[in-house]
Design goal:
Layout (H helix, E strand, L loop, with lengths): L12 H17 L9 E6 L6 E5 L2 E5 L11 E4 L5 E3 L21 E6 L4 E6 L15 E6 L4 E7 L11 E7 L2 E6 L4 E6 L5 E4 L15 E2 L2 E2 L12 E6 L5 E6 L4 E5 H4 L6 H6 L2 E4 L4 E6 L5 E5 L4 E5 L5 E6 L10 E2 L4 E6 L19 E7 L6
Antiparallel strand pairs: 1-26, 2-3, 3-4, 4-5, 6-7, 7-8, 8-9, 10-11, 11-12, 12-13, 14-15, 16-17, 17-18, 18-19, 20-21, 21-22, 22-23, 24-25, 25-26
Length: about 375
């Protein structure tokens, strides 16, 4: 996930004044003075994006249908920062009752494959917590040279179970790995054969713990039933050398396992479970990104912060700013800038008694990290 559109920077006098005002307010309140380093890349009064991918000068955004987002499910930002349907209007035209196999029902994540392709992960369930529609759960690989769908990997009922929420994707070699935030587990996908397997089903490592509620800015997020929301296997990353997968429920903690073991279809469930090791005791996060040195950047929901965990386990605060309220799925581009979409997931009507508390516009920020280009 790579470069950005130059004219999406804070380019107007009003934006510069606003940034200066935030800095002044931060100094007065004792907040980190680096708040002014946040740059506005794009904003929207209609689309709620929780995912971003950056390829060259092209910026892609995506978001789930259940948020109430209006407009495309997957979009390419045009020269004026407006979302345009990608890869086509047809892929973004799904309506209830239509065929779910060749259109986006509910995109939860997008991710570059590092080989000129863009993944779009479709949970296949139009409602939050609902069951995937027949043919709906899938991973769609789009060729960014032709802007056409290259291949669709469908997840049948043996992979996307009733209550599944296929969440995100990472890839190494001929295998891709996906999390299931609804029915706790991982999916291992053979990209050549197209065959997938569920692993670590119901494992403590993939299952949300009731003693770790999702705390956002001091408030516990609750589902429609009023109980604390539980989100199973959600955040995860693959090590730069591809040898380890790090994963956990949204509220943590994170575990690790060797990818060679995940790839071995001959291993039984007990053997795989015994290979899972603790990795990091990280609390509720909106999303994460790992750089080429193995530093994990993650967005801490409780404090509206961007954090960094180094390979030796040291955790520090990169930036704390109230504008970073539930940043989801950040990415790092080739210039070592981190892109921060702010969908404010906890303010959705589903988690607030049917009343939306979303504060418009929806923002997409960038922040230059230390070290320049990776």
């Amino acid at each position: 996930m790579d470069h950005h559109i130059p004219h999406h920077r804070v380019a107007t006098m009003g934006a510069r004044i606003a940034a200066a005002a935030v800095l002044a307010a931060g100094v007065a309140a004792g907040a980190p003075t680096v708040a002014a380093e946040l740059q506005v890349a794009a904003q929207s009064d209609s689309m709620i994006w929780n995912g971003v991918a950056v390829a060259g000068k092209r910026v892609f955004v995506a978001g789930p249908r259940w948020t109430g987002s209006r407009g495309p499910a997957l979009a390419l930002l045009d020269a004026k920062g407006r979302p345009q349907p990608f890869p086509s209007a047809a892929w973004n035209a799904w309506q209830p009752g239509a065929d779910a196999a060749q259109a986006f029902v509910n995109i939860n994540a997008i991710h570059l494959d590092g080989q000129g392709g863009l993944w779009a992960v479709d949970s296949g369930a139009p409602a939050f917590g609902g069951d995937p529609l027949p043919g709906g759960a899938k991973a769609v690989l789009i060729d960014l040279k032709t802007n056409r769908v290259k291949r669709v990997y469908h997840f049948g009922p043996e992979l996307a179970l009733a209550g599944s929420y296929v969440d995100d994707i990472r890839q190494h070699g001929k295998y891709a790995y996906l999390t299931d935030a609804g029915r706790p587990g991982l999916i291992v996908l053979d990209l050549v054969s197209g065959q997938g397997r569920r692993v670590l089903d119901g494992s403590p490592s993939t299952t949300a713990r009731r003693d770790r509620p999702i705390d956002v800015d001091g408030q516990i997020v609750r589902g429609g039933d009023g109980a604390p929301l539980l989100v199973n296997a959600d955040p995860f990353e693959i090590s730069p050398d591809g040898r380890h997968l790090y994963f956990g429920p949204l509220a943590g903690p994170w575990s690790q396992i060797e990818t060679r073991l995940l790839n071995d279809a001959s291993l039984d469930a007990a053997s795989l479970e015994s290979a899972v090791k603790p990795w990091a005791d990280i609390g509720p996060i909106g999303g994460s990104a790992m750089d080429r040195q193995g530093n994990l950047y993650f967005t801490d929901l409780k404090t509206n912060s961007l954090m960094r965990r180094t390979p030796n386990g040291n955790v520090s605060t990169v930036l704390r700013d109230d504008r970073l309220h539930w940043v989801d799925a950040p990415v790092i581009d080739q210039r070592n800038r981190i892109w921060l979409p702010v969908p404010q997931m906890d303010r959705n009507a589903l988690f607030n008694g049917g009343r939306s508390k979303v504060r418009w516009p929806i923002m997409l920020y960038t922040l230059q990290l230390e070290g320049g280009e990776q």
